[in-house]
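Lab notebook: predicted structure, single chain.

Context: the supervisor wants predicted structures on file for every construct in the current expression panel, including those that have not yet been purified. This is the next one on the list. No modifications to the sequence; it matches the entry in the shared construct table.
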Amino acid sequence: MRLRRDILLFGTVAIVAVTVGWWLLANRPGAAIEAFQHEQRQLAESRRSRLPSADAFRATVCASSTCVAVEAGGLTFIFGAGSGAAEGVARLGLMHPAIDALLLPDLRLETVEGLPAIARASTQAGRAGTLTVFGPPGVVPVVDGTNLMVSGTERTRLTVASEGEDQGQAGRVLFDSGVVAIRGFGAAERGASRVYRVDFNGRSLILAGCLVEAAEIVNAARDASSPALVSLVGSRKLTGVETQCLDLDDLVQAVRQMQIPLAVVVPADPALDQVVAVAAWRELVSSAGLSAVELGGMGATVDLASGTPRFSQDPVR
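Prediction complete. Output recorded below exactly as produced.
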């Protein structure tokens, strides 16, 4: 019994000593400053510009407006250029000199107002050449206007990409590196929206903006292998009126029709930052009756590198 008491006493003394020592270390002069500096170094390191790895294939929602950063086969593409897009891409560590292209789904102000900021951020990241832009009919004056806004202050200018012929339901080949290919669907007329499909390593990622039609998502998914989808949507059920954006119910029907394994819904809703709005959207998505449909906000990531598309929501990645 005496030995047991001695052991217990020794254990108690040891715990107290460690606790007191930790407290003294944490509260010594300058400890708070050192802790803050350490945290800031870790944050800066996480945001350091980096090139995606050759086997990476993922898409991350990078702003509360239209912005999805796509990493595929060592290349980087930015889908949409809404307000805050440049900051969001930088936060992910992807604002590097070698961004391969911007993909604009439509020409609404909410989709393109971040173009000047992206041009400036590209210059600051070390880019000296032009940055290619893909977009629906009418994109040329938008790009010209952006170049006028940044002329004289930035080296990086935007240029509209030349595109291949329209192949009907098979879409239009926009980009092909031999490893990564991008096709565009829809947007035959001025003011229309375009769906993009990024193909890499036998897998496909479909990107759809607010103004897209469900039929174009169906076309994009038609011959794709186990595709994942990221789409901006609206909802008549939440607003009580018709929305200019693709309605969630219509997107769900397209997902069901094409048996898309994973569809990430990004609400085109300026009130999404409100707790009540997020809860309402979450309930709406869960009531859709498809486990393949996920609600995603800023920081939501779709990873296709391992075969089966995987979803995660990490706002501080």
